[in-house]
Structure formats: C-alpha cells, structure tokens
Automatic annotation (TrEMBL):
<dbReference type="InterPro" id="IPR036688">
    <property type="entry name" value="MoeA_C_domain_IV_sf"/>
</dbReference>
<dbReference type="InterPro" id="IPR038987">
    <property type="entry name" value="MoeA-like"/>
</dbReference>
<dbReference type="Pfam" id="PF00994">
    <property type="entry name" value="MoCF_biosynth"/>
</dbReference>
<feature type="domain" description="MoaB/Mog">
    <location>
        <begin position="187"/>
        <end position="325"/>
    </location>
</feature>
<keyword id="KW-0500">Molybdenum</keyword>
<dbReference type="GO" id="GO:0006777">
    <property type="term" value="P:Mo-molybdopterin cofactor biosynthetic process"/>
</dbReference>
<dbReference type="Pfam" id="PF03453">
    <property type="entry name" value="MoeA_N"/>
</dbReference>
<keyword id="KW-0479">Metal-binding</keyword>
<comment type="function">
    <text>Catalyzes the insertion of molybdate into adenylated molybdopterin with the concomitant release of AMP.</text>
</comment>
<dbReference type="InterPro" id="IPR001453">
    <property type="entry name" value="MoaB/Mog_dom"/>
</dbReference>
<protein>
    <recommendedName>
        <fullName>Molybdopterin molybdenumtransferase</fullName>
        <ecNumber>2.10.1.1</ecNumber>
    </recommendedName>
</protein>
<keyword id="KW-0460">Magnesium</keyword>
<dbReference type="GO" id="GO:0046872">
    <property type="term" value="F:metal ion binding"/>
</dbReference>
<dbReference type="GO" id="GO:0061599">
    <property type="term" value="F:molybdopterin molybdotransferase activity"/>
</dbReference>
<comment type="similarity">
    <text>Belongs to the MoeA family.</text>
</comment>
<comment type="pathway">
    <text>Cofactor biosynthesis; molybdopterin biosynthesis.</text>
</comment>
<dbReference type="InterPro" id="IPR036135">
    <property type="entry name" value="MoeA_linker/N_sf"/>
</dbReference>
Length: 418
C-alpha cells in the first residue's frame, strides 16, 4: 500500500526541526511567528476612561433628570484625553470630559453632551453650569480599567502568526519587543533543458519556464522572500554539486522537475547520493511523486515534480506546512470549508484527489451565502494544466474511497488565494 498524504507529511514534520529565535521590535514582527508567550505589561484600558464626549457626574445626582425637569450641575473642571488631572466632584458637581480621558475618581458615570443643555442658548458646551436632561446609571459610558485585558495575562502565545491586530494589542499593552522565529532562507532550483526564460524565442519542444514564478510566489504568500533562483543544467553531477553547496547556505532548497523514472531525470539521479532524502509515491493525485529530506549540507530539500500543478499541490500539501513548522507555527495545516459542487466530476480512484477549483460565494436555498466550487482544470489531466490552474482559488479534497462527485454534493475545500 502507498504512503498517505498524512503519513508523508508526518515523516517530513518529524525531521524539519525549528529554526532559532531572535528578538525584534513590533514593527519588524508583522508576519513572523511568535517564539514565546507574551504577557500584557498594562491593563487595557489603562485607566477608567470616558467612552463619550460629555460630563463626568455622580449618577445619584442626576437620578430624576429628564427633558422636562433637567438637573443643573456646577462645572468644576475639564479633563481631556492625555490629562493627568483628577478634579474633585462634590454633590451637584460635573466635569467636562472628552472620549478617552481618565474619569475623575469621584465620578461614576458620563452623560453624553447630546443629553445636556449648556448655560448659553447657542448650544455650545457649558462653562459654569450644565442642565442634564437624562438620568444615567452608575458605570454608564465609563470604560473600566482592565475590562478588556488584565495586566499580566497572556496576550499572545508561542507559535502564533503575528498579524496587525495582535501587534496592535501588544503595543497597547506596553510590549516593545518580541521573540520570533527566524524565517527560513530558501533557494529554488529549476531543472529541464526544454525551459526558456521569459521572452526568449521558442523552438519546437521548448516552453517558457514558469515554475520559478510559481514557487517564489507561493513562498512569498507564506512570508518568505526567495534570495536565489538557479536554473540547473540537466547534468546530474553538476546538480549534485549545486545541491551540496546550496545545502550549506540555506535552510531549505526547493527543486522542480527531474524526479520521474526518465533517463534524464537528473534530480532523482543526483539525490541517490543523499542518504537522508526519501523518494516515495504518495496516494494522491496530482503530486504522487514525492521526494524530501535533509541534504548532507544541512538544508531540508523538497524535490517537486516539474509538472506545474503537481508542484503547486506538493507545495500546498507538504512544503508550506514544513516551512511553517520550521518557524515553530502551532497550526501548520489549513482549515477546510464545505463547498457545494457546481459540476459533476470524476474522482481519482483509490487515491486522494486534490482538484484545483474556483470557489465562489453564492445564495443558498434560503438566500444565505454558501460556497460553491467548480473544477478549474479537467480532472482527467490535472498535473500539467498550468493555464486552468491560474484561475483556482482553492483545492477540493476528494477522499480515495468517495468515488465521483455529483453536482450539489458538499466537498471539503481548502482556500489558497493570497
Ligand atoms: N514511466 C513513468 N512516467 C512518469 C511517471 C511514472 O510514474 N512513471 N510519473 C509521472 C508523474 S506523476 C509526474 S509528476 C512526472 C514527474 O516528472 P518530473 O518531476 O521528472 O518532471 P519533468 O519531467 O522534468 O517535467 C514534467 C513536465 O513539467 C514541465 N516542466 C518542468 N519544469 C518546468 C518549469 N520550471 N516550468 C514549466 N514547466 C516545467 C516539463 O516540461 C514537463 O512537461 O512524471 C510522470 N511520468
Ligand atoms: O507526481 Mo505526478 O503529480 O502525480 O503528476
């Protein structure tokens, strides 16, 4: 029986290891993986503060206020956002207060300015006394210290991807620097004597080289800038030398092409000298041929098929999770979402089918939004279909024992659009 996707991924994840951690500023941390839990240095909010522009009051003083019988309060001060002042309020007093300003210790509620009348007829803010036209309960319009986050609590956990919202939370809670995992340095090597650079003229049998565009783009979509791209000659000896050299300088090396049983499949031949690299057949279509492991130079190698869609699917199933694991990411697998098949298609008998699909949001029977998916390529020949694959924003996962897919059935889909 052939290796399953799960088994092969486990084999890789057991071997990739985790890269070292380094401390960076919050601004440098976006898109990186946190290496250690971070606690809030401050409570959020930091102080009891006003949610409204208005008047800080003692709720008991305005208990009976309404539009017909407003309650007059004496204005004893003003607090703006950023002000350190804490004016005292006695019975019948009010303090002008702006949104975000610390609520005076002696006040317990804020009346929005809209519920008051000033001491002049022009509707402006009161200066000496204010007429309050609505009662307010204690605590209303006061954002309490610590109601969002308590000081000392864990605000971010090791293994998470640091996005904009989390970094803003850390900044607000007084965190300046965080420990993050190093991003892997990755080199890409394409092989194939039929390949020509973009814009070069093509003789019969030659094609534009597109896998380096694919792989560097997929790497960028998981936060990795490729620093070197090589086009190797179809000669196993020089390729073995190149892999040995790259293996010493990079954390990971990704090759495409040359892993089949053909006479000139140079990657397969060059890797025969690498004892920790495993070539295997996985029960999946496309991406059946898999080859991965640690090069003697030290880098982790992923030798992907030259077929562009096989390379993309291999990247999604094995390379992306491995590169995330190297960064200590807690969750390396994508979530699947259910989508309704918008067409019939043939499954891949006996193996998992990973079909590039176009996923759309459409109205369900009760007007609710549901996802639909339609094949982006012909399911009979997926691995070479670089053109149709360009439209795909997801992959439908059709289990080995499921058989064909019928219009209207629900299929699990992973969304891969950047
Ligand atoms: N006798 C068998 N033949 C094949 C088998 C098999 O089991 N027995 N497996 C097939 C499968 S599955 C795959 S996948 C391929 C593996 O192919 P290679 O990794 O050796 O890839 P190549 O032969 O080098 O190229 C395949 C295809 O992709 C095009 N290609 C390659 N590199 C690029 C690139 N950088 N940009 C664009 N296109 C590229 C290449 O021209 C070929 O058309 O083997 C099957 N055969
Ligand atoms: O490795 Mo090949 O994809 O099965 O197309």
């Amino acid at each position: 029986m052939r290796t399953t996707v799960r088994e092969h991924l486990s084999w890789i994840l057991e071997r990739v290891g985790v890269l070292p951690a380094e401390e960076v500023s919050l601004r440098e941390a976006h898109g990186l993986t946190l290496a250690a839990d971070v606690r809030a240095r401050f409570s959020l909010p930091l102080w009891d503060n006003s949610a409204m522009d208005g008047y800080a009051v003692r709720a008991a003083d305005v208990a009976g206020a309404n539009a017909d019988s407003p309650v007059a309060l004496r204005i004893v001060g003003e607090v703006l956002a950023g002000s350190a002042s804490d004016p005292h309020l006695g019975h019948g007093d009010a303090v002008r207060i702006m949104t975000g300003a610390p609520v005076p210790s002696a006040a317990d509620a804020v009346i929005p300015v809209e519920n008051t009348r000033g001491d002049r007829d022009d509707g402006s803010w009161a200066t000496d006394s204010v007429l309050v036209q609505a009662a307010v309960a204690a605590g209303v319009n006061v954002r309490r210290r610590g109601e969002d986050i308590a000081e000392g609590s864990v605000l971010a956990t090791a293994g998470e991807l640091l996005g904009a919202a989390r970094l803003a939370a850390l900044a607000a809670a007084g965190v300046e620097r965080v420990l993050v995992r190093t991003v892997p340095c990755v080199a890409v090597v394409v092989t194939g004597s039929e390949l020509r650079g973009l814009g070069e003229s093509l003789e019969r049998g030659q094609i534009p080289e597109s896998n380096s565009v694919l792989i560097t783009g997929l790497l960028r979509e998981c936060g990795i800038q490729t620093t070197e791209v090589h086009h190797s000659s179809d000669e196993a000896v020089s390729l073995a030398d190149l892999l040995r050299e790259l293996g010493e300088r990079f954390d990971a090396v990704i090759t495409t092409g040359g892993i089949g049983p053909g006479t000139h499949d140079v990657v397969r031949i060059a890797l025969e000298a690498e004892p920790e690299v495993l070539a295997t057949r996985v029960a999946v279509r496309p991406a059946k041929l898999q080859c991965a492991g640690r090069l003697s130079g030290g880098a982790f190698l992923f030798a992907l098929s030259g077929n562009p869609v096989s390379a993309a699917v291999s990247f999604e199933l094995f390379v992306r999770p491995a590169l995330l694991a190297m960064q200590g990411r807690g969750e390396v697998r994508r979530i699947t979402v259910p989508a309704v098949a918008a067409a019939d298609w043939r499954g891949a008998e006996g193996v998992l089918q990973v079909l590039p699909v176009v996923v759309r949001s459409q109205a369900g029977p009760d007007g609710e939004a549901v996802l639909s998916c339609a094949p982006a390529v012909n399911p009979r020949g997926i691995s070479h279909a670089v053109g149709g694959h360009g439209a795909a924003n997801g992959y439908a996962l059709v289990d080995a024992d499921r058989g064909d897919v019928v219009t209207g059935e629900t299929v699990p889909v992973i969304l891969v659009a950047p």
